[in-house]
Amino acid sequence: MNRPRIVVVGSLNMDLVVEAGRAPRMGETVLGDRIHFIPGGKGANQAVAAARLGAQTVMIGAVGQDAFGEQLVAALQKDGVVTSAVKAVDGVPTGVASILLAEGDNSIVVVPGANSCCLPEDVDRNEPFIIQADLVLLQLESPLETVIHAAKLAKHHGKKVILNPAPAQALPMELLCNVDYITPNRTELSILTGMGAEGEQLEQAMENLLELGIENVITTLGAEGSAFMRSGERLQRVSAYKVPVVDTTGAGDAFNAGLAFAIASNRALPEAISFASKVSALAVTKLGAQAGMPTLEEVEKFSFQKV
């Protein structure tokens, strides 16, 4: 079987992960338990996850000319990700994410740094990778103009485009009309549509995105699994899987990479979402977004139980 070819256009960050018994209230100081420096960034996490599953993966992005940047590129290369399209920017620090882990959940503050220097011309310079790809995977930690340009270029060459709309923001039609699959969580769906996404409102919010011209809307719902809608069809649900949770930081990135791998492998959408859910479930059983990304063999051998 030919390995699927995926291009990820997105962010590379060094994650500064602090573990604490609970999150502090505003104005409060609490003592933490441990601190870790772990390679991350939504784009890099998704690239590593796709590569571990067996995809030929290319990363387009930017880091600073500093120790963090060198470590992030080395981490990608260790997993077989092609990094020749990751540029090192002089005078701008590598992006950093401050992550608090408390009570099995996380809160994150991202300082983009060199990620802001990943520009449309960088995408153009690496157009041959997009021409050779089966699918292009995007997020929103890079400049919006770059994300829009990458989506347009991918569609120009007839490639499938997945947009993980995180961090959430209102998005222009110029981007949405070039997206085949969009994968918000419930909060991101609310921000994208300007309406609630709880209970019966979930289907209406997803339908609103379909009406904007996106053919496939997949909403991740945490322990509730996920829901998806396609043009002209009703909402369908896919169950989550029971696993011992250690770190949820990379759950969304694992899901998106799993979805990209499955779609690029020509799996039907319900099967692709189920596969992505399994990848995401295994990813939260280890500390660190990239460290937790499973291999295809691990996904296929694990005995999953639905929630």
UniProtKB/TrEMBL annotation:
Gene3D superfamilies: 3.40.1190.20. CDD domains: ribokinase. Its main location: cytoplasm. Pathway: Carbohydrate metabolism; D-ribose degradation; D-ribose 5-phosphate from beta-D-ribopyranose: step 2/2. Coiled coil: none annotated. It is found in: Cytoplasm. Its cofactor is Mg(2+). Catalyzes the phosphorylation of ribose at O-5 in a reaction requiring ATP and magnesium. The resulting D-ribose-5-phosphate can then be used either for sythesis of nucleotides, histidine, and tryptophan, or as a component of the pentose phosphate pathway. HAMAP family: Ribokinase. Homodimer. This is Ribokinase. It comes from Effusibacillus lacus. The lineage of its organism: Bacteria, Bacillati, Bacillota, Bacilli, Bacillales.
